[in-house]
Amino acid sequence: MKIEKDSYGGRATIRLIGRFQAEHIEELKKQLQENGPEFVLDLKEVTLVDVEVVRFLEKREAEGVEIVHCSQYIREWMSREREAGTT
Fold first, then answer.
1. Cut 0.90: pTM above it
2. Half-sphere exposure of 45 (CA within 13 A, CB side)
3. Which of 46, 65, 67, 84 could form a disulfide with 60 if both were Cys (CB 3.0 to 4.6 A apart)?
């Protein structure tokens, strides 16, 4: 997994690339903390996730993080996790 950052007008975009799995969550949390409360997660180039990542993403979105370019299978999985109350 690769993490790239861009910043425009005080708002950071964090782009995730490749396979995003549970072992990468801590690194992403560090990146998010460094960028303050205003950021966007761009998942356009994410190819594979696991259940822990889906739960992590669902929690961040519930906290107000904007998630863009999220594939349909991840969106559906996030929705199922939310409905099941596992996040």
1. no
2. 9
3. 65
Rounded-to-integer distance, Cα 74 and Cα 37, Å: 23
Q: Which two tokens stand for residue 21?
A: 């799995």
Q: How many CB atoms lie within 10 A of CB 43?
A: 21
pLDDT in tens, the chain (87 residues): 999 998 877 778 999 999 999 999 999 998 888 776 678 999 999 999 999 999 999 999 998 899 999 999 999 999 999 998 865
As a whole number of angstroms, the distance between CA 57 and CA 67 comes to 8
Residues in the chain: 87
**Total number of domains in the chain:** 1
| β-pair type (2-8, 11-20) | antiparallel
What is the span of the domain harbouring residue 79?
2-84
End-to-end CA gap in the chain: 23
